[in-house]
Amino acid sequence: MNGRNRGEVDRFHIGVAGRVARWSLAAWAAAMLGTIAAGPRAAAGMAVGGALSLGLFSLHRVLVATCVRPEHWRKWRVVFWSVWVLKWPAVGTLLYLVVKGGWVAPMWLCAGVALVPGVATALAVKALIADGLRERAVLDAGR
Question: What whole-number distance in Å separates Cα of residue 22 and Cα of residue 119?
């Protein structure tokens, strides 16, 4: 396929991580404004959940960038595996402390954690719908 005939889905992978990060940050900011009205525990839940979601997404972006460069892989292999293994106890401890301490509303914490996957899914669905509409318009123009 040449560049002009490529659909939205075919081009979706180009810069997708950056788009997901930008839209997730914007969605998190909007959600924070909305949860402030719901109360301090709701706002704290969205803040911690969103920060956790965006932080892990950013960490994974850095780790993947390190992995795809073979010249850096040997040098950073120990760091990569250390971070990968240690992040889970750190995340578990953080979640335990904020929920057990009653600092956050668990529902809003879960909503914040679901922020990045939700934005990524929405962008993928948007690309699929745009591709379907484009194909339909091309088919209708050919009649």
Answer: 10
pLDDT of residue 47: 96
Report how far residue 16's alpha carbon sits from residue 61's, in angstroms, rounded to the nearest whole number. 11
Neighbour count for residue 95 (Cβ, 10 Å): 17
Residue-by-residue DSSP string for 19-79 = HHHHHHHHHHHHHHHHHHTT-HHHHHHHHHHHHHHHHHHHHHHHHHHHHT-HHHHHHHHHH
What are the φ and ψ backbone dihedral angles of 39, each rounded to 5 degrees?
125, 165
What's the rounded mean pLDDT across residues 130-136?
70
pLDDT tens by residue, 67-124: 766 666 666 777 777 888 899 999 999 999 999 999 999 999 999 999 999 999 999 8
- In sequence order, the 6+-apart residues with CB closer than 8 A to the CB of 47 are 32, 112
Handedness of CA 114, 117, 119, 122 (dihedral sign): negative
